Amino acid sequence: xxxxxxxxxxxxxxxxASHPLKLVERAxxxxxxxxxxxxxxxxxxxxxxxxISSGDLAAKRPGTVPGHQIVGRVEELGEGxxxxxxxxxxxxxxxxxxxxxxxxxxAGQENLCPGAAFTGWDRDGGFATEVVVRADxxxxxxxxxxxxxxxxxxxxxxxxxxAFRLAGVxxxxxxxxxxxxxxxxxxxxxxxxxxxxxxxVSRDRAGRERARALGxxxxxxxxxxxxxxxxxxxxxxxxxxxxxxxxxxLERGGTCVVNAIHLDGVPGFDYRMLYWERRxxxxxxxxxxxxxxxxxxxxxxxxxTRTERFPLADANVALERxxxxxxxxxxxxxx
Length: 335
What we know:
- By secondary structure, the chain is an alpha/beta fold.
- Helices cover 24% and strands 27% of the residues.
- Strands 3, 4, 5, 8, 9, 16 and 17 form a 7-stranded mixed sheet that branches.
- α9 links the parallel β16 and β17 (330-334).
- The model has no long low-confidence stretch (mean pLDDT 95).
């Protein structure tokens, strides 16, 4: 008898309240050469999952299963995979595979590979009981840790770490975080551990209180400018107006990093805000080196996440809560 797995499949993109994902039964996926099949223990919900489900990001193929912050145990190995991985806990993020041969891949910039495939977009993701992934794009995780606590590290944490590096803020310097959700919470802990001063702008009162309790040097609401110029800033909200606010607060030579795969558009701004060699840049995906470095730091600091658990069948509920900014930390699906 064929083995059946459950998955939340994208049937017709739309608002989360219209339930764009449908719980379906599928045949158990079989790993090809170089792949492994994981039994999913937890999968955190990212704003990118919301944007794919809503249609802000066009689905790459019909029936996509979202989810790219996956914690799972190896149940089956494809040809050529190290037998020692059987039964191991692995973490899977947004970057599902790259070509490995283009100039960007050879230069250590595999996050920019034109042939990259992304988990939960190009290939099925972790909103399921089982998932097949490339073994060389999965990272070993602590087998004894809570998988729900580990899952939000695998995108919000890693991409936040890359954004923090690109912002170029060092010990004693000021970092602005615009938005204070699951990713910013992890970046704040990382920056504070590095001796940075953290300034937070958030429209969410509870988020501002969390930032203050964590040790932020200053906390404000949108429209309020930090009391001193920032060396670097990272924007997390998918709103272009926030980017302009952050850019306005930079000191000369500072960098604003946009941590978003989709924005509603960036309003026009006075060129003098960009002058004096200020930089405005995006962060795109992450490399396997980023994931290795961040996961090591997350364990040593240690970085703590805030989570809300949802059963797999309630993926639409989690997306709706995320869409309405009614998640404290990260939503995590537990099959």
